[in-house]
TrEMBL record:
The chain crosses the membrane at residues 12-34. This is Ubiquinol-cytochrome c reductase iron-sulfur subunit. Keywords: 2Fe-2S, Disulfide bond, Iron, Iron-sulfur, Membrane, Metal-binding, Transmembrane, Transmembrane helix. PANTHER family: CYTOCHROME B-C1 COMPLEX SUBUNIT RIESKE, MITOCHONDRIAL.
Length: 169
């Protein structure tokens, strides 16, 4: 039976030590750079501020489309993005602000433009229909209600935030 030698030579010891120390130092230098590069991606997106859209006096019981702009920050990129909302007051006077983005494939819905289905939101792309409150009509392509904008009334003006799925967080 031969006895195996497990002794480490001086050259091997130096190689292991220098490799280990070099790797440790390289990691110490690279980690802050990697962290800096990916940091905006890792951060949860900040809740978007509410934007002033229209005077409450202009809001009627008939849905009207109002356009506005939001500041959007996607990781490193900041931009000003156009948005639209269908806004009206329901029977109790409550303000409803619906996203115009169809929940089928994202076309823009219109109010009361389909002569066969009056007083409904209509998506001309694939004949999608929604009730006035944004509920999707069964049997048409959309499979979910229109998103609802977070909103607030301040000093007589309507402010809108992010559009969220109905009942969503
Ligand atoms: S995108 Fe609206 S019905 Fe298809």
């Amino acid at each position: 039976m031969s006895e195996k030698k497990h002794r480490v030579s001086r050259r091997q010891f130096l190689n292991y030590t220098l490799t280990g120390v070099g790797g440790f130092m390289a990691a110490g230098m690279l980690m802050p750079m990697v962290r800096f590069a990916v940091d905006p991606v890792l951060k949860p997106s900040a809740e978007q501020d509410l934007v002033q859209v229209v005077s409450v006096d202009e809001i009627t019981s008939e849905p009207q489309r109002f356009d506005f702009k939001i500041d959007q920050i996607d990781a490193w990129y900041e931009s000003v993005e156009p948005r639209s909302a269908w806004v009206y007051k329901d029977e109790s006077g409550k303000i409803i602000a619906l996203s115009p983005v169809c929940k089928h494939l994202g076309c823009v819905v219109d109010w009361n433009t389909d002569p066969a289905n009056e007083n409904m939101f209509f998506c001309p792309c694939h004949y999608g229909l929604y009730e006035k409150d944004g509920t999707n009509v069964p049997g048409t392509p959309p499979i979910a209600p229109l998103d609802v904008f977070i909103h607030e009334v301040k000093d007589g003006y309507l402010y809108l935030g992010k559009a969220k799925p109905r009942g969503g967080a």
